[in-house]
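Review form for a predicted model. The reviewer records the input and the model, then writes brief findings.
Reviewer: anonymous (R2)
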Amino acid sequence: MASITDLVNLPLSGNFMRSFYGMNTQHPMDIIDREAEYLIRVSTPGATDVSVSVEDDALLIDVERDLSAVNEEGQFNIQGISDYKFSKTLSLNNTNVDVDKITSKYSKGILEIILPKTEEAKPKVIPVDVEME
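Model under review:
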């Protein structure tokens, strides 16, 4: 069974890996391993369309910011806020993620995706009776 870090299926070094993990990109990403789930957070400020789906054992993240509908009066002296399209694909093949229970929400420029772990992957607690003398 693969771990959450195996989701990305990327080489362990190089610019592409640094870019994926958020150093040198405008859409930094966190992947957090919790006891019962994984949390993925992606910074996507000002998104106007967000899509998260699972297809062929892959988690697909698509985000778009389209400002074409904004009608500004006057002439821009500086126009630093631009449209963007952002896509990431994470492999879920051979991982311990329950794909039927994945949820996501977008709030205040942050996309959060919860990937619940399968029951087999969750830590097992076995109570042991302690005999006190």
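Findings: The longest helix spans residues 15-20.
Further findings: The CA atoms of residues 73 and 79 lie 13 Å apart.
Recommendation: see findings above.
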